[in-house]
Here is the input.
Amino acid sequence: MTDRRDADRPIYTCTGIRALEAKALGGPTRPLMQAAGLAAAEFIRRHLPDTAKRVLIVAGPGNNGGDAFEAAMHLRRGFLGIDLVFAGSRDALSPDARAALALWTDAGGSLLDEIPPQGRWDLAVDGLFGIGLTRPLEGRFADLVRRINSLGVPVIALDIPSGINADTGAVMGVAVHATHTMSFIALKPGLLTLDGPDRCGMLEIADLGLDTESIKPAPGWLLDERCIRAALAPRAQNFHKGLAGSVSVIGGAHGMTGAALIAGRAALKLGAGRVYVGLLDSDALAVDTVAPELMFRSASDAIEPATVIAIGPGLGTGAPALALLGQAIASGLPMVLDADALNLIARDASLVHRVASRAAPTLATPHPAEAARLLGTTTTAIQSDRLAAARRIAQSLNAHVVLKGNGSVLAHPDGTFRINPTGNAGMASAGMGDALTGFAAGLLAQGAEPSCALAAAVWLHGAAGDALAQAGDGPLGITATDIIVSARRILNRLMASPHPA
Here is the structure.
């Protein structure tokens, strides 16, 4: 099982949210709709300019529209001018949404069919579609989304920006660009990965008074900095390097030695006691002048002294690489698989079986193209449902897996998952994956439980990039070497801080 100490913000898929609603209520959903509307109204008020006078609310044909009707009632009582656009049919509404609309009209509220072309508002509210959207927006609905995006005012999305698939984060044709999103009940994967983070803006959760974990335990959680403490404990004064383990990085074929060096440096800087680098390129230098603490071996001799193996950075896919991968799999040591190690496994079903049958823990760090090779599909298919892809790889390899990308998805053999919120576009540069591999191996070597080692490595990797960007050293021009130094600083700061209650 995965360790829950590092994450207590639950994530549910659409199916899970529907099950929560059904178990929590056991009947009409109107009390929940009322709670959502009140929470939305309070959220909107907090983000309105002090001089605000008028708000545009666009309500859709489903229960998301019902939430918008409820919010409109509360805002109107606060003497705000409300222009409410209803993009649906009263007769087609659910009973609860119809009741909310009736309250609005009975109180004297009016409905508009379209967004007035010359209207002026201080804020717009997107209540078109919630989590149930499964097909691309077209026609009138697509036009409304484009119009909302063109208003030039802050946009608050209710539950999820309309046009975003709540399970995958994919844009369904077009999608609202929200400045703020209030997610009802719990987080959804689509808010956190692929295109979701670019569309939802600042994110807040309204649990609507539901204790979700007591109703239906969550399958996933959002990573935060507590994953660091879950992975490592502060060192005792009576400590020596043997207690911090030994990492062997296997890779570095001709022309790709830099990948192995980056991974080795990353493991070293995050605290591994010893780091060996086994290079396939026999003509490479025998010392890293940047990190002379790294110890070099021939690739075939580097496995023996290790307590953890990281294999793949710059490995290549020829016969020598395949033989080394076989040695690593058979070693019985904890192992991190990356890059060409994953590409070799993707070519050979027997290797998949051997990895899955290992007693020692395995971590894997594919990017979408590597994930596509492992699953025999396309990168587009992987990106269309990142959570499902990560879970499939975790099950097939019996491994703790991170599918890298915007909102990296971590999946575990028990079916649980985590999503990482850290990182930025400046990290789209060469060597970043090698640094992540080194981080994970270095934490494993120091005794971190495998799922915690991967979680901490992924969160810290992204947080290091964010810190560089915030300091003005990014996002443009961030390098993997920069990430290593930044991550070490963050790790030490968090380890030195008091343990959270």
Q: What stands out?
A: Residues 1-5 have pLDDT under 50 and may be disordered.
